[in-house]
Amino acid sequence: MIKINLPKGDNPIKQIESCLDVTEQIDLLIKEKKEIGLNFSDVEWILPCSALLLASKIDELRSKGVNVNLIPPKKEMVKKHLLDIGFPFGTEKQGETYFPINHFGKEVLINKKVNELLNSIQNKLPKQFGDSIPYLLAELTDNIEQHSKFTHASIMAQYFPQKKYIDIGILDNGLSIPKVFENNTISFIDDCNAITKAMSGTTTKKEDGTRGFGLQSTKKIVRDLCDGELYIISRGGTLIFEPNLLSKKHNLSKNVLKGTLIYIRLKTPSKDLNIYPYLE
Questions:
Q1: pLDDT tens column, 2-43
Q2: How far apart, in Å, do the first and last CA atoms of the chain sit?
Q3: Pair type for strands 165-172 and 152-160
Q4: DSSP letter at 278?
Q5: What's the domain range around 243?
Q6: How many domains does the chain have?
Q7: Which burial class, exposed, middle or buried, applies to 123 when counting CB atoms under 10 A from its CB (0-12, 13-18, 19+)?
Q8: Among 17-21, 63-67, 200-204, the least confident range
Q9: CATH number, position 35
Q10: If DSSP codes are grouped into helix, strand and coil, which group holds residue 114?
Q11: Among 61, 98, 224, 237, which is most exposed with the fewest C-beta within 10 angstroms?
Q12: By C-alpha distance, which of 167, 170, 143 is closest to 46?
């Protein structure tokens, strides 16, 4: 039985690294053909990025016929929250402030899932966000569909009215940005450098030409227009963009992500947003 210990607070990277440690332990148990159990009993706070990572892993295992036994959190508030957002297998139930976890494979049109998310949350968010969230979701999911060669992907979004921000997570188990570069003999120093190159517009081949520019526009809208935060985690590297700061690089301490996670946190704007001057 794997004990889930997630750091308290709103720091996504700390929780993500804890989740990657869990997924690594799961993979070891699978290799050893042992029963898999996850004990959430002491979890007191789980960020959307963590819920998405763990749920995606559990659902992917289910699709391969692997059963995972779960012990729920003792804290009723956390237990209810996970139930509400459809952890771990997703749900069609819609909430007032969230779009629940949704998993899908290559056979499902990503745009269909994105439209479902938009239809679900658009009327629940302050109108000041304007076209920012539809654009970001469309751009990021296009990148997954066109470049990652994924077999399993997951999305979710949650608005926090009291804290006045929305978190959006998009995860795929595809090639990762560094692997795509390796497959196309594009040199880079480390995984963080590969993500940096992708953000600056470095392309692999003609049909991949939109990746860098889409990420650049995403960065500008999130950080410069929305005063928000953008986390791009791909294989062993992380690039973090925060308001009024230069980008920060973070090498994952122990375990790598088998794919790419885009995690966005947008503050509720004080006035209506206009994204169009920020598009490449």
A1: 999 999 888 899 999 999 999 999 999 999 989 999 999 999
A2: 48
A3: antiparallel
A4: G
A5: 2-278
A6: 1
A7: exposed
A8: 200-204
A9: 3.30.565.10
A10: helix
A11: 224
A12: 167
